[in-house]
Design goal:
Elements lengths: L4 E5 L2 E2 L5 H12 L3 E4 L3 E2 L10 H6 L8 H13 L1 H15 L3 H24 L3 E5 L3 H13 L3 E5 L2 H4 L5 H7 L2 E4 L2 H11 L6 E3 L32 E6 L8 H10 L7 E6 L5 H10 L6 E5 L3 H9 L3 E4 L14 H9 L3 E4 L14 E4 L4 H12 L2 H18 L2 H12 L6
Parallel strand pairs: 1-3, 1-5, 2-4, 5-6, 6-7, 7-8, 9-10, 9-12, 10-11, 12-13, 13-14
Helix pairs in contact: 1-16, 3-4, 3-5, 4-5, 4-6, 5-6, 10-14, 13-15
Length: 418
Amino acid sequence: MTGPTVAYVMSRFPKLTETFILTEMLAVEAAGARIELYPLLRERETTMHPEAAPFVARAHYLPFVSAAIVRSHATLFAASPRRYLGALAAVLRGTWGSANLFLGAIGIWPKVGHAAQLMLTSGVDHVHCHFATHPALAGFIIHRLVGIPFSFTAHGSDLHVDRRMLCEKVREARFVVTVSESNREVFIDECGGPIPTLEVIRCGIDTALFSTPGAATQGAAVAAPVSVAGDEFRILMVGTLHEVKGQVHLIAALARLSHEGPAVRCRIVGDGPDRAALERAAADRGVADRVEFLGRRTRAEVAALMADSDVLVVPSVPTRGGKREGLPVVIAEAMGIGLPVVASRLSGIPEIVIDGETGYLTPPGDPTAIADALERLRRDPATRAALGRAGRALVEREYDMNRNATELVRRFAPASER
């Protein structure tokens, strides 16, 4: 019996910062499913993970309108005018009141209808969407138009900023995934009670790539972090340079570290709209000589940087616009390497950063607390090693991509094959 054919839908692909989607697709195919890729938009990145190239080559990048799209909609309407118009009405009614969702729904309706027809004729068994906003709306539309079952994974800001039509998507979906127990509570509060189809499935990582020596059984393992007394204390931060990631608070914390003990070196991986402001902040705080902005990096490059670091810092904060992290995958990647983590007590983060066991938690936006946690780790290599070992054990139990992908593939399969 062959595995199911699953259409993956996401906002943009290939997006360098969304390694969790790429990692999941690689593992889902390894678990026996066949993936058809339908991004809502093509992301034109200057840097791309090499593993994404085969998906890009076979992805269905659809225009907003074309003769083929018109023909597909004519076919769908002719097959069942009532179903077609009912789906359109449900989408417009459900998104009304949110400019972002309503205008986005109008924009994607033509191409998603065409995608539905393509999926129907090509034998897609299931549609899985990443993010609860427009991608999940696409799954809703496809299901309403042609009956293919869908599911979606909710992550962070897609769940926290605008929940309009969220409960309608939940009711229509075969199942819903979220990445943390914290997010599960958001769903339950929003939709008014237990949701039998809602499950927490962690975003898995490649535990062979993000690995300590002896922990990997396949693939390319990287060396474990090694600290030498009197050597540099190497801090790493990975994420888009944006308010929600909180890099400005890490920079402020660096200015509070003492000048005694090992020299401090902080490397910040990522790019984004706040880069210039963060570089100015480092200069204003007098720590520009301690901070290096490395720009975008591939998965393998990030793994190598983690192997050459002593601690990962994830200083996430809620933004003024309501954005917040769900559970950053970079935490699991760092723990796979054996790094302790200093992170904000926010959303699902405490589910993986267990204070005093796998790292230290700090209040969001508190540079003094970040500095205190870093100072403790800076002066205590034995504690760093113990926290790193505990983090690796936790990742192996709950965040292994192959184990979690197997769970997804089982749910993707038609009921008769489970």
